[in-house]
Amino acid sequence: MTNLPLNPPNSSVPAVPVPIVIVLGVVAFLGFSCFAYFLVNGNENAKKLGKLMRSHRFAKRGDVEEQNFLGLAYYYGGVVPEDKAEAARWLGKAADRGEAFAQHTLGDIYYKEGNFVEAVKWFRLAAEQEYPDAQCSLGSCYLNGEGIPEDKAEAVRLFHMAAEQGLATAQFMLAICYSAGEDVPPNTTEAIRWLRMAAEQDFAPAQHTLGIRYLFGDVIPEDKAEAVRWFRKAAEQGYEESIDILREIEGGNR
Questions:
Q1: Is residue 36 part of a domain?
Q2: Taking the chain, what is the end-to-end CA distance rounded to the nearest angstrom?
Q3: Model pLDDT for residues 208-232, shown as the tens digit of each residue
């Protein structure tokens, strides 16, 4: 039986002989472009080939977890070539079966493409299942009037629902709403409470904002050491604004 090397000729990794019938089977199963991607990237990705084929097999049978896996794999690339259309196809299969994670992820894909109406449709379906990420995403659409008429009261309601489930992003958004009085009476106590909850979950924007509050004594007592502590937490996550302000503080400019 004829064998083909799985690695390109100039690869430093020893080639793995593969029977031609298996190669043809993989090409038929995954498509040539996907197989070629594995061929070019050598043995490291070849180890993932079995998992990918298994996922395809079970996803085609209706396994929503494997459909989610394939959708994310194609969306981000790495394991397979990045393919947004293929990502949406697999996530759509899981979303059509009512899987909230897939519905939200599919909505996020449409949102990033600028198709806000379609994004709102999928966010709503997932939010109706009390999926916190979708509640927060739908709230943001209501807040900004993206794909749906602006309704800040509904945005706050959705942020509340997600925040109460512990979603840091929603807690941060709720803090902003209470601080700015976005369709809720301005309430600095509630704003700081939700801001601190998000910061304690290592949500960098909340950590930075809390640091700013301490630095300038805005609503809470001024405390430069506490401000620096929160800036450092955000900076450790690569949050640029905190990195910059720490440089200023350490340089004696604040």
A1: yes
A2: 74
A3: 999 999 999 998 999 999 999 999 9
On whether residue 126 sits in a domain, the answer given is no
> With bands split at pLDDT 50, 70 and 90, how would you rate the model's confidence at 182?
confident
Let me know the angle formed at the C-alpha of 223 by 222 and 225, rounded to the nearest 5 degrees. 160
What number of residues does the chain have? 254
Q: Are 143 and 123 in contact (CB under 8 A)?
A: no
Of 227, 160, 159, the residue nearest 199 (C-alpha): 227
Helices (H), the chain: 20-30, 32-46, 49-60, 64-76, 84-96, 100-112, 116-127, 132-144, 152-164, 168-180, 188-199, 204-216, 224-235, 240-250
What range defines the domain where residue 37 resides? 1-47
How many domains, the chain?
1
- Side chain identity at residue 80, one-letter code: V
Q: Would the pTM of this model clear 0.90, i.e. be above it?
A: no
Is residue 5 assigned to a domain?
A: yes
> Which amino acid is present at 118?
E
Are residues 176 and 163 in contact, defined by beta-carbon separation less than 8 angstroms? no
Close Cβ partners of 159 (under 8 Å, ≥ 6 residues apart): 135, 136, 139, 170, 173, 174, 177
Does residue 99 contact residue 64 with C-beta atoms inside 8 Å? Answer: yes
pLDDT band at 203 (very low <50, low <70, confident <90, very high): very high
Domain membership flag for residue 22: yes
